[in-house]
Amino acid sequence: MNIEIMEFAEGARNARGLTVIIDVFRAFSVECYAYDSGAVKIIATGSTEEAFRLGSKYNNSLLVGERNEKKVDGFDLGNSPTEILQADLKGRIVIHSTTAGTNGLINAVNSDIVITGSFVNASAIAGYINEIKPDQVSLVAMGYRATESAEEDLLCAEYIKALTGGQKPDFTDRLSSLRFTSGKRFFLPENSDFSPPTDFFLCTIPDRFNFVLKGTRRFDGNIDIEKIDV
Question: pLDDT band at residue 88, thresholds of 50, 70 and 90?
Fold first, then answer.
C-alpha cells in the first residue's frame, strides 16, 4: 500500500485511489458531530449558491458553513462543532459548504473512493483503509483556507498514516501544542462569536467516533456524505 500526503485543492485533483480529504479545523469534525447529533443526511457543496439551492429543495434542511471562518449570511449555523452540539439536528438534512474542506471533496475527481478526514474519527479511517486494502492512498491536507499549510491537517495526515501502518502513536502533546500555533485563533477574544475555544477542543479529541464519512458524487456535482460504521 502506497500512502502519499498532499495538500490543497490541487492535491485533491491529483489524488488517486482511496482519498482522504482532511480538514480538522473544522469542516470534517463538524460533519462527524452533525451525524452524531442526529442528522439523517449531509450534502457537501463547494458554493454558497448551491447550498441555497439545495436548501430550497429539502424542506427539513439546515444550511451549515462558513466563508472567512464566519457563518454565511442566510445560513442557519456556522462551521462550528460547538454550534452543532447546541442545535437540534434530529431528522435534519445538513447542507454543508466551507472554504477548504467541502471544496476538497468537490475537487477529488480522479479518486476511486473519497472519505473525509479529521482527528475525531482517525482510527476509524485507518481501520477502513486497512479493510479496503487499496494499492494507493492519498491523504490530502486542505490547509488554512485551502491556500496555506495547516499544521493540524498535516498532523492528522501523519497520524492516520501511522495508524494505518499498525503504529499507535501518542499525539497528546502535539495536539495540545496546536493551541499556541495553528489553533491560537480560537482563543482570540475577537473570534469568540464564530470560532470559540470549545471548537478547538472538540476538534482535537482523537478517535471520538467509530465511523467514517464517505463521499459520493451526485448527479448535480455535489457530494452525498454517507456515515459508515467501522
Answer: very high
Query: pLDDT confidence of 196, banded at 50, 70, 90?
Result: very high
Q: Is this structure's pTM higher than 0.85?
A: yes
**Judging by beta carbons within 10 Å of its beta carbon (0-12, 13-18, 19+), is residue 1 exposed, middle or buried?**
middle
β-strands 223-229, 2-7: how paired?
unpaired
Instruction: Measure Cα distances from 69 to 101, 113, 186 in Å.
Output: 12, 28, 11
Averaged pLDDT for residues 141-146: 94
Q: Which three cell numbers stand for residue 221?
A: 456535482
What's the rounded Cα separation, in Å, for the pair 105 and 70? Answer: 20
Domains of the chain in start order, with CATH, are 2-225 (3.90.1560.10)
Cis amide leading into 26 (omega within 30): yes
